[in-house]
Amino acid sequence: MDVVIYHNPDCGTSRNTLALIRNAGIEPHVVEYLKTPPNRFLVRQLAERAGITVRDLLREKGTPYAELGLADPNLTDDQLLDAIAEHPILLNRPLVVSPKGVSLCRPSEAVLDLLPAQQGEFVKEGGERVVDEHGRRVATA
C-alpha cells in the first residue's frame, strides 16, 4: 500500500501517526512539509479529497495565525493558501494520503481508517493504548 504522510517530526501527533502507519507494516513516503512545503494546488486538492475546507487545514497554536489576522471569516481560500505558502507552519498536520482516502489525522488514531490491520499493539507516546496485542482498535471512553 502506498501511503504519504505530511509530517512534522517535532509534533507528537504526527510522530504517533507515523508510528501507527509503520505498525500496519507500511513504510510511508514521509514529506517533512516544513522543509518541502506542498504547493498551493496540492494543499487545495488535499483539503478537497479529505472533505474539509482550506480553513480547516490551518493550525493556530505555535503559528503566526493571530498576527496574520487569519481568524477573519471573510478571507478567501486563495488568501489562506497564500498564508500557508508563505508560512508552511500554518498547515495543520499530519495529513495522510492512502488508497483509502485522505485525512487530517488529529487525533493520530484517525489514520487507522486509512490503513490495513495493525500488526500488533500500539501505545501512543503519552501512554494511551489505541491498538491491542491482536491489532484491534481499543475502544476509548
Automatic annotation (TrEMBL):
Superkingdom of origin organism: Bacteria
Signal peptide: none
Keyword Iron: no
Enzyme Commission designation: 1.20.4.1
Coiled-coil boundaries: none
Keywords: Arsenical resistance, Oxidoreductase
Reaction equations catalysed: [glutaredoxin]-dithiol + arsenate + glutathione + H(+) = glutathionyl-S-S-[glutaredoxin] + arsenite + H2O
Family, per entry: Belongs to the ArsC family.
Name of the protein this chain belongs to: Arsenate reductase
Biological source species: Methylobacterium cerastii
Lineage, uppermost ranks: Bacteria, Pseudomonadati, Pseudomonadota, Alphaproteobacteria, Hyphomicrobiales
